[in-house]
């Protein structure tokens, strides 16, 4: 694997086909590209990786990108995570919310709010709320706290509502 081939592969797969369409050889190549960029980090690969995620688990390979993203500073990841949350591809948005929960940054607050409030994003909802909670814990920003207090009053999932209330340090819900 070399840099031009790795970038070409990622560019051709925006997003990757589903697991069933991709087959194991395409997913193996994706993993080789991931390992290449772990050994030779290049921030230019970040948006291409984020744009590659399909609406599935990628045969377990997508989760391994935690190691890749850990190679970069938060400031290198954040703008690309925000962009990925606005992608027209559901899988890209879902995975961006997943990583935002792990690499939370106050700059991601607005795109995360969009995912929480969008009825077309039920799968990204949990990750987005967890990321917003993490942002609040790390920053104690009043705007983030106000959003979470409003969200706690309308959240239909009792576990998520309890997570929000725990983050805010308020009593557990009796609903």
How far from one another are the termini?
55 Å
Shape: elongated
**How much is the average pLDDT?**
92
Helix content range: 55-70%
Q: What is the percentage of strand-forming residues?
A: under 5%
Oligomer: single chain
- How many β-strands, per DSSP? 0
Number of helices: 10
Low-confidence stretches: none
What's the Cα radius of gyration?
A: 17 Å
Q: What is the H/E order?
A: HHHHHHHHHH
Pairing-aware structural class of the strands and helices?
A: mainly alpha
Instruction: Describe the main β-sheet briefly.
Output: none
Can you describe what's shown?
This protein has 10 helices and no strands. With 175 residues, the chain is mainly alpha-helical. The termini are far apart.
Secondary-structure blueprint:
Layout: H1 3-12, H2 19-39, H3 46-52, H4 65-69, H5 74-84, H6 90-102, H7 109-117, H8 122-139, H9 142-154, H10 158-168
Helix pairs in contact: 1-2, 3-5, 5-6, 6-8, 7-8, 8-9, 8-10, 9-10
Primary descriptors:
single chain; 10 helices; 67% helix; 0% strand
Short summary:
The chain has 175 residues and is an all-alpha fold. 67% of the residues lie in helices and 0% in strands.
